[in-house]
């Protein structure tokens, strides 16, 4: 493990021209992406391995990162997906008995360029004030590149708006996880960046979980004779995922029960005929308060999204695409953002946050039960028809 005090120089350059010098952390080199901040004080391994962070440089607002190391039991996917990593004080030792290696080594092994020793509070305040922006980390020899050249590289990087990143994170072939609970039947999961904890939760509710590539067609979904369809979280702009929206409309037309989380919520919104928009700096962390309007209960929830659905906040409204009545089921209490949708005339609902939340909190885990109950009710109605 590289000592923070002897590491090579590094600099974080934002597209507004601001420069934040520090020390190299992880792999050496250059990386660019959208700079976002995550407020979680725990669960950095789950954050790093969340495919939804593809294309983004993640800044941790918690000052001390890495003391529990990395292990082989908690990854949410097959690799670290962040484009870069920004921390203030990396731990110099690993002190957790479950650790298999240090965070620094894991970043290096996966080629993730990071930076430490920067004022993460100052950078977070800048992003909150001016919005998420492109940035670049230049470490080792790249830190000596001319400042104007570094800024040019950052400003020529693609913006997140308009990007479709599903192909970069999705599986290439079908992967099946058998049910571990009382069996309901096959579930088609469109992998837009699905997390392992989601698969485990669905299997525990009695689904044989068929994880399908993001290129799956309606015929391929029908071929497994699913009892329901699930859209996962994932990176990118929902407005750039027209094929996934069209596929979802075919699913809804077939009358299949549907549940979507995060990116899946945005795609359900677009399938219903609603718009989506980019948030100024997004919601990322494990402490976001959300109101479940059905119960009046406030949940503390895990989030990772930079886009949201544009929908009427009060009362039921008609789906512009002809799927009956719809209502906003959940609202974010920090900024009144739509955090969930529920179709009233077809078996479909979604939430903008992460009910699997492997690193916690688990307030929203009941949503998997709600999905299971909806599917069971739909199956019973079909059998009695």
Helix and strand arrangement:
Layout: E1 9-14, E2 19-26, E3 30-38, H1 44-48, E4 56-60, E5 64-65, E6 84-86, E7 89-90, H2 103-109, E8 113-116, H3 120-130, E9 133-139, H4 147-155, H5 166-169, E10 175-177, E11 185-190, H6 196-204, E12 207-212, H7 218-223, E13 228-231, H8 242-253, E14 258-261, H9 263-272, E15 275-292, E16 297-310, E17 317-318, E18 325-332, E19 338-343, E20 348-351, H10 366-384
Parallel strand pairs: 3-4, 4-6, 5-7, 6-8, 11-12, 11-13, 13-14, 14-20
Antiparallel strand pairs: 1-2, 1-9, 2-8, 3-9, 10-12, 15-16, 15-18, 17-18, 18-19, 19-20
Helix pairs in contact: 8-9
Overall mean pLDDT stands at: 94
Q: Let me know the largest β-sheet.
A: 11 strands, mixed
Which structural class do the helices and strands define? alpha/beta
Radius of gyration: 21 Å
What is the count of β-strands?
20
Q: So what's the overall shape?
A: globular
Low-confidence stretches: none
- Tally of discrete structural domains: 2
Quaternary structure state of the chains depicted: single chain
Helix content, binned percent: 10-25%
The ordered H/E elements are EEEHEEEEHEHEHHEEHEHEHEHEEEEEEH
CATH-defined fold name of the largest domain: Rossmann fold
Looking at this structure, what is the CATH superfamily of the largest domain?
Class I glutamine amidotransferase (GATase) domain
In CATH, the architecture of the largest domain is 3-Layer(aba) Sandwich
Counting DSSP H or I runs of 4 or more residues, the number of helices is 10
CATH top level label of the largest domain: Alpha Beta
Taking the alpha carbons of the first and last residues, their distance comes to: 64 Å
